[in-house]
């Protein structure tokens, strides 16, 4: 087991306000993330709108489609962590980008051939989900190697800034592309972005050593070790419970918001893109402000406060009517975006600091198995509730669930904790 006592090994020096961006390898990862996130914003809006507008499918079918990209975390999430811990993570990232780009290109090709069906969209979403599992598990496991553990908060904050900025500008671009070119054709832009992301990852110079695998070790045993590591730690378990609950109801919410906005609010694709962009305003603020809030509240408190104070603003969306009220709801969703980024930077950085290198893949896979599996199940439930109760009522139920998601971390040691436990003095898997 690799010691946690040498956090600065392999870390680039922090020279000025640019910090890690002065480092060639982190800069390429940063740029790769930038283009990939913009492309992701296009597909995350274009794929369901292709089903709603181009194919005119039912609410339940939209819910199933929303779940397909996340259901892969349930199907292969746990073994993926063990497999990633046996492979060089940079190589996994590159292959995942290339395969996802190729699969996405089939959507505009089928559209041009007048052969696009909901079943193809299901298949595309599922394959994208499978390789997203490998990409995400490798990505969070790769960052500690690339920047060193002492720079994880800075690295995660900069990458969250990219994601939040993409949430700001990406939906606007996506909405206009969908309006001008149709949703299926807009997806081709994400394929190009993923190809560019793979090329940038190829430029990274720092190479990982080949992981050492114990002779005779079994994937099933390694999966159990990952589960035990996460759920035997009270803080990790509470974070997983909070994130899983929030994602479950977010899955239901997002499945119906893409039905609610065009059908109930009468919004065009361009307006829908602007609606989601307003959510991204808060994310950008949260990425820049996470350090300030951490210093003011403490590392432990900021985890639950960031969700408890911001999530209730989501209730304004199902309360809205066409006109200015839906735009007020969209603007105030910026608080939700800010809280989500602050929460993510804090809890992800702690998880990476706590976990030894040879356990990172399994820890990240275990967490994602729960939290993204919850999203997939929530999306299916959202589609089923939308079919019976309608999109607006489903949004009310989902928004209420998101508002209460902070309770697991509130009723944990994090409630009054200003500084998170020092992993150097806490045995792996020990109860916090």
Automatic annotation (TrEMBL):
One Pfam family of this chain: MFS_3
Residue ranges occupied by any Major facilitator superfamily (MFS) profile domain in the UniProt entry: 236-432
Spans through the membrane: 38-55, 62-80, 92-112, 119-139, 177-202, 235-260, 272-293, 302-320, 326-346, 367-389, 395-414
Membrane topology (UniProt): Multi-pass membrane protein
Keywords tagged on the record: Cell membrane, Membrane, Transmembrane, Transmembrane helix, Transport
Location of the protein in the cell: Cell membrane
Record keyword Transport present: yes
Name of the molecule in the record: MFS transporter
Lineage: Bacteria, Bacillati, Actinomycetota, Actinomycetes, Glycomycetales
């Amino acid at each position: 087991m690799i010691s946690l006592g040498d956090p600065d090994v392999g870390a680039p020096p922090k020279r000025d306000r640019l910090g890690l961006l002065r480092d060639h390898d982190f800069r390429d990862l940063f740029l790769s993330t930038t283009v990939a996130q913009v492309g992701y914003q296009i597909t995350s809006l274009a794929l369901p709108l292709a089903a709603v507008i181009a194919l005119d499918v039912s609410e339940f079918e939209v819910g199933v489609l929303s779940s397909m990209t996340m259901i892969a975390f349930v199907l292969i999430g746990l073994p993926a962590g063990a497999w990633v811990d046996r492979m060089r993570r940079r190589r996994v990232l590159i292959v995942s980008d290339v395969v996802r780009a190729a699969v996405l290109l089939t959507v505009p090709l089928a559209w041009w051939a007048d052969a696009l069906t909901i079943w193809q969209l299901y298949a595309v979403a599922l394959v994208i989900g499978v390789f997203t599992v490998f990409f995400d598990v490798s990505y969070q496991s790769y960052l500690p190697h690339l920047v060193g553990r002492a720079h994880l908060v800075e690295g995660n904050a900069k990458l969250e800034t990219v994601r939040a900025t993409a949430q700001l500008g990406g939906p606007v671009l996506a909405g206009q592309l969908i309006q001008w070119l149709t949703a299926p054709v807009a997806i081709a832009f994400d394929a190009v972005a993923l190809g560019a992301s793979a090329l940038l990852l190829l430029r990274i110079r720092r190479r990982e050593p080949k992981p050492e695998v114990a002779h005779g070790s079994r994937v099933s045993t390694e999966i159990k070790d990952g589960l035990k590591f996460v759920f035997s730690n009270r803080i990790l378990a509470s974070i997983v419970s909070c994130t899983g609950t929030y994602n479950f109801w977010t899955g239901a919410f997002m499945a119906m918001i893409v039905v609610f906005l065009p059908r109930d609010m009468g919004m065009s694709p361009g307006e829908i893109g602007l609606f989601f962009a307003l959510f991204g305003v808060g994310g950008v603020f949260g990425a820049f402000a996470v350090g300030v809030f951490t210093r003011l509240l403490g590392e432990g408190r900021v985890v639950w406060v960031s969700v408890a104070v911001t999530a209730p603003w989501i209730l304004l969306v199902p309360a809205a009517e066409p006109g200015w009220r839906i735009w007020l709801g969209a603007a105030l969703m910026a608080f939700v975006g800010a809280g989500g980024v602050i929460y993510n930077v804090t809890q992800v950085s702690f998880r990476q600091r706590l976990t030894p290198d040879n356990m990172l893949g399994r820890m990240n896979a275990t967490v994602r198995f729960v939290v993204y599996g919850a999203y997939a199940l929530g999306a299916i439930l959202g589609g089923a509730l939308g079919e019976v109760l309608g999109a607006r009522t489903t949004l009310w139920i989902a928004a209420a669930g998101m508002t209460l998601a902070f309770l697991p971390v509130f009723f944990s040691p994090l409630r009054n904790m200003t500084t998170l436990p020092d992993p150097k003095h806490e045995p792996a898997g020990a109860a916090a």
